[in-house]
Amino acid sequence: MSVNDASLVIRQPNCSDHSNIIDRDPYVNTSTRFLLAGAFAATLLLTGCGNGQDTRMVTDPEISVDDLRKHVYYLASEELKGREAGSPQEAVAANYIADHFEAFGLIPAGENEYLQEFSFTRGVRQQPGRVYLESTGVRINAEEGIVRAWGISGSGRATGRLVFAGYGIQDTEGGFDEYQAVDVTGKVVMIMRGDPESDEGADDRDIIRERVRLAEDNGAAAILMTVPSHYEGTQPLLPLRYDRLAASATIPVLQLTRETARILMQYAAFDLDYMESEIIRSGEPVSVETDMPVRVVVDLATERRIARNVIGLVEGTGDPERYIVVGAHYDHLGFGEHASLYNGTEPRIHPGSDDNASGTAGLLELAHYFAENSPHYSLLFIAFSAEEMGLLGSEYFMGNPVVPIDDILAMINMDMIGRLTDGQLAIFGTGSSDIWNELIGGIHIEGIEVRMSASGTGNSDHTSFYLREIPVLHYFTGTHAQYHRPDDLPDLINYEGLASVVNHVAQVIDGINRYEPGDIIFTGTARAPVMGMPGAVTLGLVPDYSYEGDGFRISGVAPGRPGDLAGIRAGDILIAFNNARIADIYDYMRLMREFHPGDKVAVTVMRENEEILLTVVFEP
Ligand SMILES: [Zn+2]
Questions:
Q1: Residues of the chain with CATH 3.50.30.30
Q2: Between 80 and 553, where is the model more confident?
Q3: Were 423 and a residue from 36, 344, 449, 613 both cysteine, which residue would form a disulfide, CB within 3.0 to 4.6 Å?
Q4: Does domain 124-301 have CATH number 3.50.30.30?
């Protein structure tokens, strides 16, 4: 699907002014404009806009259960196909939100009217006819379904003699090094997923990524990956999946079915099953170099997409140069190709009624309410996209703010507020400013029992603001069995509860307006959530999840922690510990596991394109 398809979305016009409907989408070319103009004239007639009223847009300025229901049902409708970021349906949803912002009289605050567009990598796909294995005059193309590229394979071609290296394990301390007896430099290495004891880790992408990294570090020119004979999983060839956080391998990585691997080894005069059984029997590596040349070609194309944040402004009457951000992501999982918990075989629409049509409906109701009830500070209403892809929309906004970040007093986030049960409402981030406990403590709404939680970070867009030291609150009514599944349906939403939650948010916003800017101070929660395993050493760094380059980029540093004391700064890209390369977040985690309390380690960071060498000392 090309980016432009999104532009051919016909929106129901609002009757007041339809001339800009065509203009709003930059992707519409001239001939299409005329086509659409004709279509709209017809639509106006059909939808009876002649009478001046577009029923979709009629909402009550008060926070109303009916309006919330209307918004949720529309956003979760089949027509919007689960609102995946960058899809045509996401653009329809974006226009729906923008239309309402316009109807409510919000000031357009995006780069393109209400829209703030950004691009992201949605995935990778195999280039037709350019992913294959070749040996002894036989070529096996990916299209045949018995070989497939690995999602973070490097794109390239390599020819070299085939080497079998068992599971590709190099545990020198444990005395099991499958690279010891062979030299894989410039050769094509075949390894099996899992390990001799069990195939438990055979589908574990972290383990596979490490095995790939090991083969690379040992000089392999390409990797052929297959499954062990006792593999009981359902994915002998793992789906081609792009991992934003992982640096792609520098060499081609091709998956083979067990049968294909068996035959290839036979051609090289080796018995794969026998060698495997010998490793398991002896507990020793059985790695061999063969004389057989193999050619591996992997050509992957990254699929880039355009997504859009929708941003509208209600200007404050008292101090309009200061802003409170009210946010909710409106994207969801589409057909669940990414991050779905649904195991069915048939792709199904994930309507995302609670996640996060509920928060988006709340955002629209608050925008209407405050457009009619002017606040003291300005309110920036932001419907984020690509939250499900890793907070990409809010990260993009923080990298491209439409108002000065220093003038943002606070951010209120709503993500999954539609399933209030027994009145239990969780509000996170209350440790991010001293005003929150007092402010929230003073609000009482019948049927709501607030549970406050200090931490300012979590799996939603408020984190992008917290990391820039902006006080945040995150509203959440709890997870449920329908989370990230096709049955997160609008009928299951508690609309009265939703209205009460949105009312609570309205009162908090009112409350913030009563504080002086100097009182709304950021206080880091006790300890910023840091990366690391329990009991392992940590540096107090917060990863930048939207970063796709080489190395490990930091978006936050906890004050007083080893990273901060060593001089690491937000924005730095870690590229090495001592001499060990850090290609991505996974390398960072793997290498961190090797350090102990009290260790002193050299760390190389890139800062403004300059390499800087620092020394960290892990807490004893
Ligand atoms: Zn969500």
A1: 124-301
A2: 80
A3: 449
A4: yes
